[in-house]
Amino acid sequence: MPSLKSLRSRINSVKSTRKITQAMKMVAAAKLRRAQAQAEAARPYAERMERMLASLGAAVAGSPDAPKLLVGTGADKVHLLVVVTADRGLAGPFNTNVGRFARNRIRELEAQGKTVKVLSVGRKGAAYLKREFASRFVGEITFAGKKRIGFEDAAEIAARITAMLDAGEFDVCALVYNRFKSVIAQVATEQRLIPAPLPEAAAATASGPVALYEYEPAEDEILAALLPQNLAIQVYRALLESAAGEQGSRMTAMDNATRNAGEMINKLTLNYNRTRQANITKELIEIISGAEAV
Amino acid sequence: MATFQLELVSPEKLLLSRQVEMVIVPAFEGEMGILPGHSPMIVALRGGTIRVRENGQETERLFVAGGFAEITPDRVTVLADEATPVADLSRAEAERRIAEAERAYTDAALDTPEKRDAAMAKLLAMRAMRDAAQAA
After folding, report:
1. CB–CB of B62/B49 below 8 Å?
2. Which residues of chain B make contact with A42, given a CB cutoff of 8 A?
């Protein structure tokens, strides 16, 4: 049976752990609200961009000299996966989820004989994937130490992707990130970036009477300017969703941890009281049997 | 007077969404005034000032660093790369960014023509920003 002193110190240490997890939960809740608001604010732009792109893409997609960002290189050999994870841990299964999803995807692609390259965003995913796929890494980006993700950060990543495409370093590009389904559910998803997936169905139904836009300057020039912007906004959206998901996941994880710590404290306190009682009883018995012997 | 819906969005937020009578946008090939019932168009924007008219008066002036506008007879959507009310612009900030853009342009001088054009567009946008700040 553990001594009273060791029980006391364990109870104290679990109590301070509970304080930390509780504080982390509060912080995550506050950050979650902010991240959600930011993700919400980015939505109108993305929606309008999509609408514009649908009408433009339909006008240009058929032509042979359509820009690479829209139609890709035509080949399907080299895949670039942009894996978005968090920079910090202690967020429950958040990082491992994306990591595992990416790992399965890489294996699947390589089994089909494709070459895979990995661009990781966020420290945790990099650490996870590097153990197995270090040779596929082409770059790492982290926002560690940054207060808030701005559109410029996404634009930078997009510029990097575009530069790689221009250099012919890959054929197909996809984003892997945690989609924010709800505060307690984040789903690891893959979203194709290049060739750009046009909202075909919507374009087809809308292209009837509406597609009579005039363009200034010409379609292909607008498209050339619009596509990088679209790429950036897609990345931006993924970053924001991932950031919101991270906080949500951390909040749930810390909530569970706080509850577990509480349970543990109860158990230990019970144990402590029992031991104390046993000690007293033992001492009493000793005194009584001593007195009787006299 | 007839009105139409104007929406101004930047990647970070929805800046403006209301009924207006007229809007003047800095289109790629010159300023363009849009009234209700305009024929459908998609235009690229350069750096410049968007001016909004309501009730016969100019009510808003916003600087955009570039972007796109989608025009339909009853709606105008402006997707701005970056938008600030002209009153909030600062001359010093604009000068700093001009210097930055000039440096980027010199760096891009030996690069591909597309990159050079992009740097030039950026520089022009920043100069437009200074002019807008000065006029305010």
Report:
1. yes
2. 11-13
Same domain, B127 and B77: no
Write the pLDDT tens digit of every residue in A58-96.
766 666 666 777 777 778 889 999 999 998 888 889 999
Whether residues A45 and B79 touch (CB distance < 8 A) is answered with yes
Is the whole model's pTM more than 0.90, yes or no? no
B82 and B119 inside one domain:
no
How many Cβ atoms are within 10 Å of A197's Cβ, its own excluded? 11
Please say whether the beta carbons of A227 and A196 come within 8 A. Answer: yes
Here the CATH number for the domain that contains residue B48 is 2.60.15.10
Distance, CA of A77 to chain centre: 27
State how far the Cα of B120 lies from the Cα of A211, in Å rounded to an integer: 32
A44 CB neighbours in chain B (<8 A) are 7, 9, 13-14
Which residue segment(s) compose the domain that B110 sits in?
89-135
Q: Are residues B26 and B41 in the same domain?
A: yes
Count interface pairs A-B at CB distance under 8 A: 74
**Whether the predicted interface score ipTM is above 0.95:** no
